Amino acid sequence: MSGIYHPTVASITLRATLGRKRALLFGLPAVILVLVTLAIKAAHPATSGWVSGILGDFGFTVVIPLTALIIGGSVLGAEIDDGAIVHLLATPVRRSTVIMTKFVVASALTMLLAGGSELVSGLIATGGATKLAMGLFVGALAGSVIYNAVFIMISAATTRAIAVGLLYVLVWEGLLANLVGGVRILSIGHYSLGIANAIAHDSSLHAGLSLTTAIVMGAVVTVAALGVAIQRLASFSLRGDAL
């Protein structure tokens, strides 16, 4: 495990991430989701037709990816921007360990905030620990992991990670994945919905992928994204050594 996860790097990453001003934005999408759920539940206590649209569509294609983007962009992208990554790369820690450790930290924070907000909102919306609430929670946890792999890859590949990531969320996940059926096979939001629906068995979630497809494609995207991130960070260190 020590070759994949480095406790010291994790501790430094956590302190640096939570210490930046953008940390105040981490929980904003999650808070908005809970507040919207409370407001709609108060206005329509006897109906539940809105749950899939708010917690499924909005939660999985807006709240979770935005939370992952802010956090994933902070654990690596911010260090590259301010030059702090050079000090880390000067240590004997393997580049793969750096990426994997930051991935674990980012995923854990996103699962806590985005996954937690989906759970709380699901419990409020459905009136308890229903299959729909649990399905949304598990789907949110899966989405948190996959989204962070992609956003860490983007952070390692470009200095404009937030802009590129936001474009991806709005255009690919928010627009194309919901309008073009073939795009769903490459949509993290639909991977999450597929996993959620396997537990909830609710047609209103509009899950376009089966559980098997969602898990396999989610795993492929996660591994591929982390592989690219490791390669990009390795090339960055080589350029730094050359200078």
What does this structure look like?
This protein has 243 residues and is mainly alpha-helical. The protein has one domain. 78% of the residues lie in helices and 0% in strands. It is built from nine helices and no strands. It has helices at residues 7-19, 28-43, 51-82, 85-89, 95-126, 131-157, 161-179, 188-200, 211-242. The longest helix has 32 residues, at 51-82. The two termini are 33 Å apart.
Structural class by helix and strand composition: mainly alpha
The general outline is globular
Question: What is the element string, with H for helices and E for strands?
Answer: HHHHHHHHH
Largest sheet, in brief, is: none
Helical segment count: 9
Number of E-state strands: 0
Strand content: under 5%
Count of discrete structural domains: 1
- Quaternary status of these chains? single chain
What percent of the residues sit in helical stretches (DSSP H or I)? over 70%
Mean pLDDT: 88
Q: What is the rounded distance between the termini?
A: 33 Å
Detail the poorly predicted runs. Answer: 238-243
Walk me through the topology:
Blueprint: H1 7-19, H2 28-43, H3 51-82, H4 85-89, H5 95-126, H6 131-157, H7 161-179, H8 188-200, H9 211-242
Helix pairs in contact: 1-3, 1-5, 2-3, 2-5, 3-5, 3-6, 3-7, 3-8, 5-6, 5-9, 6-7, 6-8, 6-9, 8-9
